[in-house]
Amino acid sequence: MSEKITSSKQPHNQDSAPAKTFSEELLELAELETNSVLKRLETQLTGLSEADAALRLQQYGLNELAKEKPQSVLMHLINNLKNPLVILLVSLAVLSYLTGDLRATVVISVMIVLGIVLRFFQEMRADNAAAALKAMVVNKATVVRDGKEQEISLKLLVPGDIITIAAGDMIPADVRIISAKDLFLDQAALTGEAMPIEKKSIAASKDMDNPLEIANLCFLGSNVVSGTGMAVAVHTGEKTYFGALSTSLVEQRELTSFDKGINGITWMMIRFIGIMVPVVFIVNGISKHNWLEAFLFAMAVAVGLTPEMLPMIVSVNLSKGALMMSRKKVIVKRLNAIQNFGAMDVLCTDKTGTLTEGKIGLEKHLDVRGEESEKVLHYGYLNSYHHTGLKNITDEAILKHGDLEGTLQANVKYHKIDEIPFDFTRKRMSVIVEDETGMNTMICKGAVEEIMACCSSVEIEGKVLPMLPEYTDSTKKIVDDLNAQGFRVIALSYKEMPGASDEPVYAVKDESELILLGYLSFLDPPKESATGALKQLADLSVDVKILTGDGEAITTYICKEVGLAVDNVLLGSQIEAMSEEELAKAVNTINIFAKLSPNQKEHIIRALQSNGHVVGFMGDGINDAPALRAADVGISVDSAVDIAKESSDIILLQNNLLVLSQGVMEGRRVFGNIIKYIKMAASSNFGNMFSVVGASAFLPFLPMLPIQVLTNNLLYDFSQTTIPTDEVDSDWVKKPRQWKISGIEKFILVIGPISSIFDYLTFFIMLNVFNAWNNPALFHTGWFVESIFTQTLIIHVIRTNKIPFIQSRASWPLIISSVAIVAVAAWLTISPFAETLGFVALPSFYWLLLTVMMVGYVFLTQLVKTWFIRKFGD
Questions:
Q1: Most buried of 245, 327, 745, 826, CB within 10 angstroms?
Q2: How far apart (Å, rounded) are the C-alpha atoms in residues 737 and 541?
Q3: How far apart (Å, rounded) are the C-alpha atoms in residues 336 and 678?
């Protein structure tokens, strides 16, 4: 694909050269030696100057992809017009115009404009809010400028920038590697290749024609799995390989369950309209013998059945929810993830930073007998000081321990020769240093089992002895005792090798025949807030499961400390031996999973999903990226590595489960208000159609004029625009909620016909009490008023599972809009527009009867609603 795109901007020294495709330019740079690459891009190892970087930013533009740019005003309008409900209304407006019903055309047009304009402004507001929230979570790149390393926002990166990369980093642009050490990348987003690919700095051969297969080229969209490197940016933004793909794939996003639910409701209503409207048309045509009149009335009924405000109500709820969540330190990257957040019934999380403080301190440095050892401390410090990979919290704890930098003079007395970076398969890393005598020492630290597997000897009181079974047993006992006290333990080993005239290169195979030196133990105390947070999540019916790479003993200790039940623990080694069916069965009953690999975390999440759970995963490390992508809602923290934040839907500004529980409640509140509208609009419209069909069969005139049907619907729509301001009952947000179209359909079928009972009672009163058989205008006016009063009133019954007005009261904006709309409806019957709309003044006795009917309507609806909830749930 990128072969067809021509670079519009060449490096500075090639302005007059013929334009090359991006691939051709990359291939040429791949074949050059490092110095030639730097010269070609007019840069150097000390990086660009700030002035040159500013000029290049002006020339090349921001390092952003097409999908990250906000939609234009025109695209917003086009997307709103593409909505199936809008298309239906436009079709009805055109038909009304062609059949000469100009009043209906005007009212339908007003409804279309109202829906589009309200949605347009709310979506613009939502987009602006989302952009402001995303700006709070910035991914950064480490560059060299003016000879100094510094972190800059990813979007400020320019061609020619020298970039340093390490495990956990995203590749910020299309780059040419200029140095690398055991650098492995995940390119699955670009190539689909599941296994990490090694990248090196050596020049490529001239017969290579696919940039993605060249070892010295890395691309935006990939991330560093292990190792370190330095690279120079070649292409940024839309000129990257991924950028070229994104311009065509920008709209192709996988639908969330929220999107699918909204689409399901929309098409349910359209199918309903497709059945009812032809029935209304045929019944009226046969009974009135005026097929044009029947057609116009059927069109008005179609409009009345259409939930025009659904897109606007959804947009307002989501944007309002995102803003509310941001005040609670929860940043929503994708608005539609809010519903999944509320629907989440299982939260999988690591224990570090969530159950624990995430602030590890080095507590003990022990030899193989469990006694304090300065040599263990010094070797641990040298390893952490000299390695350039992803420094984790244990490295930071070692480096902050005492004044070792001044004591050891690690940068003066020890010269780093090489390193073998950490990866999640080996679970260890090594640094090779040369001391003042010329001796090379490999210092290897990592998981106890992994280090032990590489050791053939132990050091005791300065003597190197063969690794006997008794030492293996004592090691296990010491580590188990420390774990049982809540300590995290890593092992330390070393191997001495004579120095060489030139600096040798070491590999994983050299991590053998090591000497076990001792252990470093760290303490990450439980959070004081963890117990309360877990209780809050339990009250919200969210089951918390711990997925960690740590061992069983320390995980069990921490979980017990914070009050999390520890009945069974499933280890990664046990999961490896399980089938998918066995794992799916096990995950429902087990809450603690220890010694997991990144892939095993993903497998657990997919097993939970296969059981029908909506799963959230909270992680902040490179090893969490697969699980974050697999989860229904990926949750990370602002301090997470780039790839974890990029894979997440939700970002927490505080690594705290209390913050998370508040976000869950807000997600449920947003979903609750959307469900309210759907239930109100659909059940009310459904009941009206029963009334329309019945009245059409026995009345000698239309039950209501088309213009009156449209005016009724317009007023009702206005009354519902304030639903997003409404509160949701505390009982309702205590349980996870998922889309259940069948449940909504049942609710419509049960609640909808209740309004028909009172409609038919109104028909009886208008025909027999007020003798409207020969006065269609009086009949129309009476039903119009009763319809709008009962529809607006019923909002307050359906909005809650409790007794309305007494146990649960709507928000003031919703109360005010309801009162205002019924007042307008009553006024229209005596207003200057009454004659145009076909209304006449109603008798005083009618208003008394209407009051009685409204009380009866509320009572009966509340009764049936209570029965429905008891039988089918809410």
A1: 245
A2: 10
A3: 17
Q: Which of 451, 587, 470, 465 is nearest to 519 (CA)?
A: 451
User: Which residues are paired to 445 by β-bridges?
Assistant: 429, 492
SS3 string, 513-571, reads CEEEEEEEEEECCECCCHHHHHHHHHHCCCEEEEECCCCHHHHHHHHHHCCCCCCCEEE
Structure tokens at 873: 């749930």
> Is residue 797 a contact partner of residue 804, using CB atoms and an 8 Å limit?
yes
What is the residue-wise DSSP string for 791-822?
A: HHHHHHHHT-SS-BTTTB---HHHHHHHHHHH
Catalytic residue, chosen from 101, 174, 350, 717, is 350
Locus of tokens 């059409």: 696
Strand ranges inside 647-782, DSSP E? 650-652
Question: Pairing between strand 148-153 and 140-145?
Answer: antiparallel
Q: Are 603 and 587 in contact (CB under 8 A)?
A: no
pLDDT band of residue 657 (cuts 50, 70, 90) is: confident
Give me the phi and psi of 834, to 5 degrees please. -55, -45
Higher pLDDT, 235 or 72: 235
CA–CA separation, 554 vs 539, rounded Å?
27
* Contact (Cβ atoms closer than 8 angstroms) between residue 232 and residue 43: yes
Give the span between the Cα atoms of 21 and 23, in whole angstroms: 5
Residue 235 identity (one-letter amino acid): H
User: Which residue type occupies 166?
Assistant: A
121 touches 315 (CB < 8 A) = no
| Dist. CA 655–CA 671, nearest whole Å | 25
| Tokens encoding 38 | 């730097």
Distance separating alpha carbons of residues 644 and 637, to the nearest angstrom? 9
d(CA 260, CA 843): 49
Neighbours of 760 (CB within 10 A): 14
Q: Which pLDDT value is given to residue 533? A: 86
350 counts as catalytic: yes
Q: What is the residue type of 578?
A: M
Provide, rounded to the nearest whole percent, the portion of the chain with pLDDT above 90. 28
Please name the amino acid found at residue 211: P
Angle at 717 between CA 713 and CA 719, to 5 degrees: 120
**CA-to-CA separations, 543 to 81, 201, 346, in angstroms, rounded:** 42, 48, 5
The residue that leads in pLDDT, 812 or 390, is: 812
Q: What are phi and psi of 63, to 5 degrees?
A: -85, 70
**Spatial CB neighbours of 597, under 8 Å, sequence gap ≥ 6:** 424, 425, 549, 572, 623
CA 858 to chain centre: 40
Give strand ranges (E) for 42-155.
Answer: 140-145, 148-153
CB atoms within 10 A of CB 543: 17
3 state SS of 148 = strand
Note the pTM of the prediction, 2 decimals: 0.69
The 10s digit of each residue's pLDDT in 276-305 is 788 888 888 887 778 877 887 777 677 666
Packing angle of the helix pair 73-81, 84-98 (nearest 10 deg) = 70
| Least confidently predicted of 4-8, 260-264, 460-464, 785-789 | 4-8
Of the candidates 396, 439, 391, 392, the one whose C-alpha atom is nearest the C-alpha of residue 414 is 439
